[in-house]
Amino acid sequence: MTGPDEVAGATGGAGAARSRHWGLALVLAATLAAARLAMAAALELSPDEAYYWTWSLEPALAYADHPPMTAWLVLAGTSLLGPTEIGVRLWFVVLGGALGPLGYAVVRAAGGGPPAALLVSAAIGTSLLGSAASLLATPETPLAFGWTVALLGLVRAAAGAPRTSAWAAVAFGTAVALLSKLTGVLLPAVAIGWLLVSPGARNLRRSPWPWGALGIGIATALPAAIADLRAAGGSIAFQLAHGLWAPGIGFAERLANVAAYFGGQLGLLSPLVAVGVVAFFHRRPPADDAPASLLWLAAVVPWSAFGAASLLAPPEANWPAVAHVAGLVGAGLAVERAARRGARWASAPWIAAALAMQAIPAALVHAHVLRPFLPFPGAPQSAFEGPREPTARLRGWRDLAAAIERQGEPVMAGWYGIEAEMRFYGGPGAPPVLWEDDDAAFVGWWIGPSSGAVLPGGAEHAPPGWCRAAPPGGRVDPGLMRPAAPVRLVRIWCKPAAPQLPAGSG
After folding, report:
1. Residue 498 CA: distances (Å) to CA of 440, 495, 501, 505
2. What whole-number distance in Å separates Cα of residue 73 and Cα of residue 68?
3. The predicted structure's pLDDT at residue 459
């Protein structure tokens, strides 16, 4: 017979194990965040990050490409640390670093044990997608943060936890997700669908709390959505056009887009982690297991929605980013169940290999960004062209801006990201940066992406039709030759066409 002392000792041992796993998750998250904070200070801004910085100069409820949360976070960081790389990225590193501990908390709320929760926290922190979300200023970071906070609140409520804090998390997370990216609309859609169809959510659907929490979150984001809809060419219209239709491509190419979409997701997850995700999808949770059924929907719906959308337009690997947290949580729960059955694929060597296949590529990419060494294809095509490899977007802009300033000739930006880079890194003596629709005659330099780069909108960028190439005249600053930034420079002479007078005038 077990005595009180033995029971107390067993309970204390279990509590110590829980504390140890939670402490390890926090230490891992803090270590990764510190490393990424140092990288965030050392790396130059990517074109998109510089573009979001220009948004922060004029705080608003609506912007051209995304809801306002990204600009607000950039403004909050630069208000503390000035217009620096670390100022732009500060809050994205903080929110991205919180995703691992949040994933741990979701696993525990869903009934998973501390080892499974630690596994999920490590998988989130070391994945390629999690690494990018914890380093760069992108809309996916606050989107994933808001999504995970709301998911934690819903799972805790479904598991019978104290409801007030859980529903506050749902309201807060929903608002953050909706204010971050259009993809955030999938969060209330998943939550409402789960409340309506899951037998395990029967008691919750009869309560006013979930509907009130979701309503508060939606209402908080509503003014930004209204401002966006009132603006010509707002982010909602842009994202729908960008993500849901690409005319002029054939059926075979659309099928290839689907294959590219799922191949990209496999690469982001790594093959062995994908096994755990597929196992979670395949062994659908029992209908009365409300937390697990919610996680299943939170992963399946975004992945399926964007898989279908890839038939309509070329996909981008980060589109279903919100599915990854729920998918990794589900994979951790699936591994835990499989380990209880003695499945070989859930053994410690398999888990170690799965994490290694995630962490090693992410570490290599981080090291390459700091000091390039990986053999990316795509050599420059001309003397005035930089590299084409993706990580080159994070270097070379300061030197390019200095070379342009020394050259002293006006420049025309062939892409919004390049114009933003010149604004961020240009000094007080920098020449003016013109946009392609500026009605001005000038002789100077057109700066666009390196050749072969297809940017949002699906078009390769080239100098405008009213400009012609002009040979470099006189001295050319050496910094314009073989730039480190991924740009192509063309010296041009521009003379906009004179307006046609109406017949019979003059």
Report:
1. 11, 9, 9, 15
2. 9
3. 55
Which is nearest to 469 in space by CA: 438, 444, 433?
444
Q: What is the pLDDT of residue 4?
A: 47
What does the alpha-carbon distance between residue 407 and residue 413 come to, in Å, rounded to a whole number?
16
What is the C-alpha to C-alpha distance for residues 68 and 89, in angstroms, rounded to an integer?
15
4: Cβ contacts below 8 Å, ≥ 6 apart: none
Instruction: Report pLDDT for 500.
Output: 44
Residue 239: predicted pLDDT: 81
Residue ranges in the chain modelled with pLDDT below 70: 1-15, 17, 232-233, 378-379, 436-440, 453-460, 496-506
Helical H segments across 179-320, by residue range: 186-197, 202-205, 208-230, 235-244, 251-269, 271-282, 290-309
Q: Are strands 454-455 and 442-449 parallel, antiparallel or unpaired?
A: unpaired
Residue 224, number of CB atoms within 10 A of its CB:
21
Please name the amino acid found at residue 207. S
Return the exposure string of 307-336: e unless at least 16 CB atoms fall within 10 Å of the residue's CB, then b. bebbeebbbbbbbbbbbbbbbbbbbbbbbb
Say what the pLDDT of residue 436 is. 65
DSSP reduced 3-state for 463: coil
pLDDT value, residue 323: 93
Residue 8 and residue 35: Cα distance in Å, rounded?
A: 40
Task: Identify the pLDDT of residue 133.
Answer: 87
pTM of the shown model:
0.91
Please name which of 158, 197, 196 lies closest in space to residue 289, comparing C-alpha atoms.
158
Write 24-30 long-range contacts (CB < 8 A, 24+). Answer: 24/118, 25/100, 25/101, 25/104, 25/117, 25/118, 25/121, 25/122, 26/101, 28/100, 28/121, 28/122, 28/125, 29/97, 29/98, 29/100, 29/101, 29/121, 29/125, 30/97
pLDDT at position 6 is 46
- C-alpha span between 346 and 337 (Å, rounded): 9
Instruction: Say how far residue 233 (Cα) sits from the centre of its chain.
Output: 22
Q: State the burial class of residue 181 (Cβ atoms within 10 Å of its Cβ: 0-12, 13-18, 19+).
A: buried
Tens of pLDDT, residues 479-488: 999 999 999 9
Query: What are the residues whose beta carbons fall under 8 Å from the beta carbon of 113, sequence distance 6 or more?
Result: 336
Give which of 375, 295, 287, 378 is closest to 334, Cα–Cα: 295
Amino acid 8: pLDDT: 45
What's the distance, CA 25 to chain centroid?
22
Packing angle of the helix pair 348-370, 114-126 (nearest 10 deg): 30
Q: What does the DSSP 8-state code read for residue 430?
A: P
Closest among 94, 93, 105, 54 to 75, alpha carbons compared:
54
Q: Give the pairing type, strands 433-435 and 411-413.
A: parallel
Question: What are 385-419's pLDDT values in tens digits?
Answer: 998 888 899 999 999 999 999 998 888 888 889 99
Is residue 206 within 8 A of residue 214, CB to CB? The reply is no
pLDDT at 499: 46
